[in-house]
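Action item from last week, closing it out:
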Amino acid sequence: MTNTWIFYGKDRNGIKTIHFIKECKKPESTKEYKEMMHLLENDTYYVTGYMTSNAWNKGNQYIKVVQ
């Protein structure tokens, strides 16, 4: 099943930043996931993660992306 995934990073001040929004089946197999791991290794972020857009919208302010 394909879902829409939000890839985000959280810095040491607790500020969350969305980096990627992608539709896929396995988010851990994407280039976006690899880029987030790179940002984690370089200390750009203290925490990185991903979650479905539905889970994101339940726990955070709603975000609408206009293309």
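Closing note: The longest helix spans residues 31-41.
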